[in-house]
């Protein structure tokens, strides 16, 4: 086997591995739904209203698509009037399906699910 052919085979193998790795990451992300992308438009307004109602008022800091760590379709981070922060989990019809204290300490959820 010539030196150039060997280099071409090695380069082709490396390229194939890179393509498979990148494709695998993309497929894994698409299947898992881990998105954390911001919600915009009418959906954001509905989610904001529902989250403020569920939190008992406050300020919405961000609204994202659910990242797979809790139930629901949307998650809204709300700073309550007392300064605490809560993550409200909403389903596709903007109903609360759970909430988590969002103090970034890794504490236990306030309410994992709402069985209304």
Described by the principal axes of the CA atoms, the overall outline is elongated
Q: Overall pLDDT, averaged?
A: 76
Specify Rg, calculated over alpha carbons. 22 Å
The CATH C-level class name of the largest domain:
Alpha Beta
Oligomeric composition of the shown chains = single chain
% residues in beta strands: 15-25%
What is the tally of beta strands? 4
- How many discrete domains? 2
CATH second-level architecture of the largest domain: 2-Layer Sandwich
Give the % helix: 25-40%
Please outline the major beta sheet: 4 strands, antiparallel
Give the structural class: alpha+beta
Distance between the termini: 71 Å
Low-confidence stretches: 23-34, 105-116
Strand order of the largest sheet: 1-2-3-4
| Count of helical regions | 2
- What is the N-to-C succession of helices and strands? HHEEEE
CATH overall fold name of the largest domain:
SHC Adaptor Protein
Task: Describe the protein's architecture and organization.
The protein starts with a helix and ends in a 15-residue tail after the last strand. Strands 1-2-3-4 form a four-stranded antiparallel β-sheet, covered by helices on one side. A hairpin with an 8-residue loop joins β1 and β2. The chain has two helices and four strands. By secondary structure, the chain is of the alpha+beta class. 39% of the residues lie in helices and 22% in strands. The relative contact order is 0.12. It has two domains: 1-32; 41-101, SHC Adaptor Protein.
């Amino acid at each position: 086997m010539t030196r150039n052919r060997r280099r071409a085979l090695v380069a082709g193998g490396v390229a194939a591995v890179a393509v498979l790795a990148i494709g695998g990451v993309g497929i894994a992300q698409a299947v898992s739904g881990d998105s954390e992308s911001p919600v915009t438009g009418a959906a954001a307004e509905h989610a904001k209203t529902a989250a403020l109602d569920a939190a008992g008022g406050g300020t919405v800091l961000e609204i994202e698509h659910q990242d797979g760590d809790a139930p629901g379709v949307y998650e809204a981070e709300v700073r309550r009037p007392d300064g605490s922060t809560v993550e409200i989990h909403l389903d596709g019809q903007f109903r609360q399906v759970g909430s988590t204290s969002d103090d970034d300490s890794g504490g236990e959820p306030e309410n994992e699910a709402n069985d209304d």
